[in-house]
Amino acid sequence: MQRQFTFPASFEESISKALASYKLSLQDSKALAKCVLALSDYFIHKPDDVTPWHESWAQVAYLCYYLPLNSTRLAGIIEEADKRNFFAGLERVVDFGAGLATASLSISQKHALQFQLVERASEPQKLIETYFPQFKAEEWQRTFSAPRLKDPKKTLAVFSYSLTELSDIPDWAYQCEALMLVEPSTQQDGRKLLQLRQKLLENGYHVWAPCTHEGPCPLLTQSKHDWCHDRVHFQAPEWFLKMEEQLPMKNRTLTMSYLLMRKTRPEVIAAARVVGDRLEEKGKDRQMICRGPEREFLAWMHKLKIQQEIPRGVLIKNPTEAQKVSNELRVSKEVEVLD
Fold it and tell me: What percent of the chain is modeled with pLDDT above 70?
């Protein structure tokens, strides 16, 4: 019942062709891992610096490591978006801080939209145009401002791992109908995203996912440490696993924090989102859910002999029949997971 995702086979073909230009292949596990470690060390020692796109080792690291991982994360988010019909009526995407265009590449797998990519470095554009011919961007731009918005009422602004150093989205983005915000699943980035959620609600946006309500976020208001993040299981190809054997970090599961918001109000559903993993405690199992401004947990009492494993990140039918005890919803039968 795990939520398992991977990246498209066409991406792998493009990565392989791109690596050949560096005289590398997907089977050169040690050489690829060396590039990944070099970029990881770079960001550890220079966390505030821009990506060194001019370095070949950085390009290789993004192609063979970060592109597969981030596109897999996005596959999970896009699936949740499609369940809510999030992309309906949208025609354009402005991908801010696009990097290797991972977000746009992933969205284009399912949705035929026009893409404007905003990226200061020139190297990613060259890589995409040369080795990913299946993707056609309308234009690449180094900067972006409100006059460049062609039809904001039909535009999705995407910020994928590009808000880390910003306190807010740019002013022009507030004109767009829809927003997709994806950030690392760190406490700092996750809580900043929850704060931005509240500001966006105050500016006329509605939450489509992961939240099923528009009240105050309990992880923000009732805790100084919690943050909301999702998790998917990564179905890695063999060459990736071989490369990963040379690395200290393993990626059997992938986490991310995200928000999908539109000015159009979503259809109301009587559902809750599972936002935690199942925790075994004395006499019961508990799993955090989100359905309103209260911090709540599903609770399965061991004496009832009900065992249920619900994947983190899925929607469940609102457990209205559960007995409320403090912050627990004590269920007497299995909870219905929604498709």
Answer: 100
Q: Report residue 231 as tokens.
A: 């998790």
Q: Which two tokens stand for residue 77?
A: 């988010």
Cα separations in angstroms, 112 against 89, 134, 136, 220, 314: 12, 12, 10, 36, 26
Q: How far lies 2's CA from each of 57, 140, 277, 285, in Å? A: 34, 37, 12, 18
Closest CA to 271 of 310, 326, 229, 219: 310
User: CA-to-CA distance for 281 and 286, rounded, in angstroms?
Assistant: 7
Among residues 261, 260, 285, 290, the alpha carbon closest in space to that of 275 is found at 290
In whole angstroms, give the CA distance from residue 136 to residue 114. Answer: 9
What are 179-211's pLDDT values in tens digits?
999 999 888 889 999 999 999 999 999 999 999
